[in-house]
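How it folds
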Amino acid sequence: MADPELEAIRQRRMQELMAQQGMNQGAQQNTGQQKAQEDAQREAEERRQMMLTQILSAQARERLARIALVKPDKARGVEDVILRAAQMGQITEKVSEDRLIVLLEQINNQNSKQTKVTIHRRRSVLEDDD
């Protein structure tokens, strides 16, 4: 009398275990994909740093590293500009610190926002305009 019920319970339990095992395999695949993605990002960053080492002089690399400490996004943008210029053949020799400074000034001038301050003075009710 309890055999069909027991068999049904066993079947449900087997299905639950199979589903759980399938989820574990899916999680392992996701972990594998994440690891592969992280490896690809790390490799791309290593290639980027290698190219920058070949393009920049030691002093220029130091200056760019100091900029990266304060403004990482700005340093990344400067690196991108330098790498693009090198790939297009515009940079034929190592970039010195002085040339990097000129490049930074050019980028700052392009991205600078002009601020305008206007002061509106409140008029008092008791003040006479006449």
